[in-house]
Amino acid sequence: MTTPRVHPDVERVLITEARIHRRIAALARDIGKHYGDAEVTVITVLNGSMVFLGELLHRLPMPTRLDSVVARSYGAGTKSSGRIRISRQWQLPLKGQHVLLVDDIFDTGLTLKRICDHMRREHPASLRLCVLLDKPTRRVVDLQPDFVGFTIPDQFVVGYGLDFAERYRNLPYIAVLKPQIYRA
């Protein structure tokens, strides 16, 4: 794998593409060990987790069903607004199912807590959380992810599906933007 050219808006690369690929492979093995042969309903939070989910999903060894939910709390800012808006709910029934909720980043936890609260009303057999990135210093709710790719410091990051104002999702690595980009 060649090293991609760093985008001019990037201050520094926090996690390389190669590290991301290795960690996702390990996450898939851990998830597979946890569930064994049980079927799992994987629900992803769009749009940020699409890239992560794409790689994770084809590595999962157990039978899966796939659905998605659309929830927003950032808008065009670098901090969660605290107002969670679910604009599209999953369609598959969850009652009695093992559910794995996949998201790109676990920050304040407000979005995932709200989604989990809605899911629990459908009485799944189990509900686990898998995130590519975890920022525990920003947590404001009593909820922890079950499967974590990387724990990162309290910095606003983009790449590998994560965005700033719907840009930079296509970067193949996780990066910190130059401050002047998001302060403009």
Structure notes:
- This protein has a single domain (17-152), classed as Rossmann fold (3-Layer(aba) Sandwich), CATH 3.40.50.2020.
- The protein is globular and about 50 Å long.
- It has helices at 17-35, 50-57, 110-120, 179-183, and strands spanning 10-15, 40-46, 64-72, 85-88, 98-106, 126-134, 147-151, 157-158, 174-177.
- By secondary structure, the protein is α/β, with parallel strands linked by helices.
- The longest helix is centred in the N-terminal third of the chain and has 19 residues, at 17-35.
List its traits.
alpha/beta, 9 strands, 6-stranded mixed sheet, 184 residues, 4 helices, Rossmann fold
State the CATH class. Alpha Beta
End-to-end distance, in Å?
Answer: 34 Å
Share of β-strand residues: 25-35%
Instruction: Report the radius of gyration as a whole number of Å.
Output: 16 Å
How would the blueprint of this fold be written?
Layout: E1 10-15, H1 17-35, E2 40-46, H2 50-57, E3 64-72, E4 85-88, E5 98-106, H3 110-120, E6 126-134, E7 147-151, E8 157-158, E9 174-177, H4 179-183
Parallel strand pairs: 2-3, 2-5, 5-6, 6-7
Antiparallel strand pairs: 1-9, 3-4, 8-9
Short description:
By secondary structure, the protein is of the alpha/beta class. The chain has helices spanning 17-35, 50-57, 110-120, 179-183, and strands at residues 10-15, 40-46, 64-72, 85-88, 98-106, 126-134, 147-151, 157-158, 174-177. The termini are far apart.
